[in-house]
């Protein structure tokens, strides 16, 4: 019995979005004063977890096919892309809720995160910096992750599309 692509995509897209939201909260609120190394580790872990979820989504959709059914490359790609698009929608809703309801000062205080500027030149520089627009921040954040997820979906679709019997047999299997 074949599961619907929409159900699988929704399940894995929600998981990707939850991980991305958790990562965003950690980076902005918990580790905002942390070193760049810690922030990079969190982002790399987020990328790897997202990659794993895309793989799991494609695998779950592939397993819903019968053994005799062919698993087309385009279907595999869709199984990886749709969860990424669901992530983008959920993260957009989260970000709108964050900036409009939860933390209305989020974007205005975002530029001022570096509180170590005590010199007069630093204060003048901080006054000249324009606050980041929420839409621009959202587009940059989602685009970075979507580009990665779409690339991962394409790579995983090509990998998962191959059938197990397409791989050459090892010597231990033939002996």
What are the SSEs and their pairings?
Layout: H1 5-30, H2 36-63, H3 73-102, H4 106-110, H5 120-128, H6 134-161, H7 171-174
Helix pairs in contact: 1-2, 1-3, 2-3, 2-6, 3-6
Task: Describe what you observe in this structure.
- The protein is an all-alpha fold and 175 residues long.
- The protein has one domain.
- The protein has seven helices and no strands.
- The chain has helices at 5-30, 36-63, 73-102, 106-110, 120-128, 134-161, 171-174.
- The radius of gyration is 21 Å and the shape is elongated.
Describe the structure in brief.
With 175 residues, the chain is mostly helical. It has helices spanning 5-30, 36-63, 73-102, 106-110, 120-128, 134-161, 171-174.
* Average pLDDT rating: 77
Beta-strand residue fraction: under 5%
Q: Give the CA-CA distance, first to last residue.
A: 36 Å
For the CA atoms, what is the radius of gyration?
21 Å
Class of secondary structure makeup? mainly alpha
Number of domains: 1
Order of helices and strands: HHHHHHH
- Runs with pLDDT <50, length 5+? 111-116
Number-wise, the strands total: 0
- In terms of quaternary structure, the protein is single chain
Number of helices: 7
Instruction: Tell me the overall shape.
Output: elongated
Q: Tell me the major beta sheet.
A: none
Helix content: over 70%
């Amino acid at each position: 019995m074949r599961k619907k692509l929409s159900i699988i995509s929704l399940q894995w897209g929600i998981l990707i979005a939850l991980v991305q939201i958790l990562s965003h909260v950690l980076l902005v609120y918990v580790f905002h004063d942390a070193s760049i190394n810690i922030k990079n580790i969190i982002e790399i872990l987020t990328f790897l977890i997202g990659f794993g979820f895309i793989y799991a989504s494609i695998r779950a959709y592939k397993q819903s096919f019968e053994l005799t059914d062919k698993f087309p490359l385009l279907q595999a790609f869709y199984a990886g892309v749709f969860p990424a698009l669901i992530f983008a929608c959920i993260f957009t809703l989260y970000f709108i809720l964050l900036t409009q309801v939860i933390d209305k000062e989020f974007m205005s205080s975002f530029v001022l995160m570096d509180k170590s500027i005590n010199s007069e030149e630093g204060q003048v520089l901080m006054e000249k910096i324009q606050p980041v627009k929420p839409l621009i921040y959202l587009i940059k954040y989602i685009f970075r992750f979507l580009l990665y997820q779409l690339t991962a979906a394409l790579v995983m679709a090509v990998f998962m599309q191959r059938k197990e019997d397409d791989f050459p047999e090892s010597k231990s299997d033939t002996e």
